[in-house]
């Protein structure tokens, strides 16, 4: 316990009650961090922050809006004095096949997953650079590594693969400032993003292909985010960590 004592962390898309962001926020708070939950709806973000206990913050922020990302981070920096950790977790999927993807689908999925990761990172980097310290954790996906996510869509695979490139490029550029940038590639995790889109048969088929024989849980991913955000990972940057029960073996 206490791996993030005294740290200030921002997690996007963390209001979803069973989501990876909320589980990460809970684990970070248990380890002593003060957490800001950013999400589309202010009331949902505030309620999720209140669930963590006192002193945490919930703010409305659409990560596709650069001005909103800047405003949220400036507000947190003025409250806290700094942001130590950013988890770029906000994401959307669309269960489309390649010929079904229209321009608006492509824009929407790339905007939230990839553009949002850039905008939020750009908002925190100046402060981290000034202090020569920071950790950014980006949520990619197994869909980036092997394509064909049953529910995600090819444009989701493209966005999540883009996050891997962005992660490595940012890690290389920011390493001299001791800002670490890493990615997590979750496999099949049971959350709202997967729940509504799969029939029981589809779920059974996916789980049958996972060597560990089960879907992942939000806390499986949160544990990896905690490691990457903390000083335990002080010499890790530009990495992608698979949290997938052996799906790529
Ligand atoms: P979720 O749907 O439960 O939560 C996503 C959250 O993002 C929601 O709270 C939503 O309101 C928020 N959001 C959507 N658009 C936003 C925007 N423009 N600005 C701010 N917030 C926005 O999803 P989850 O399963 O918890 O997934 C979290 C992350 O992990 C996503 O990036 C997802 O792509 C990735 N991921 C999930 C899985 C999985 O199996 N669940 C697998 C691989 C990767």
Radius of gyration: 17 Å
Query: Could you name the CATH topology?
Result: Rossmann fold
As residue ranges, the low-confidence spans are none
Give the fraction of residues assigned to helices: 40-55%
What is the CATH top level name? Alpha Beta
Top keywords for this entry?
47% helix; Rossmann fold; binds nicotinamide-adenine-dinucleotide; 249 residues; seven-stranded parallel β-sheet; 7 strands; globular; single chain; alpha/beta
Compact overview of the structure:
The chain is an alpha/beta fold and 249 residues long.
Describe what you observe in this structure.
The protein is of the alpha/beta class and about 250 residues long. It has one domain (about 10-240): Rossmann fold, CATH 3.40.50.720. The chain is built from nine helices and seven strands; from the N terminus they run E-H-E-H-E-H-E-H-E-H-H-E-H-H-H-E. The radius of gyration is 17 Å and the shape is globular. The model has no long low-confidence stretch (mean pLDDT about 95). Nicotinamide-adenine-dinucleotide binds near residues 20, 62, 186 and 192.
List the helices and strands and how they pair.
Elements lengths: L7 E5 L7 H11 L3 E6 L2 H10 L5 E4 L5 H15 L4 E4 L14 H29 L2 E6 L2 H5 L7 H21 L4 E8 L5 H4 L4 H9 L9 H12 L10 E4 L6
Parallel strand pairs: 1-2, 1-4, 2-3, 4-5, 5-6, 6-7
Helix pairs in contact: 1-9, 3-4, 4-6
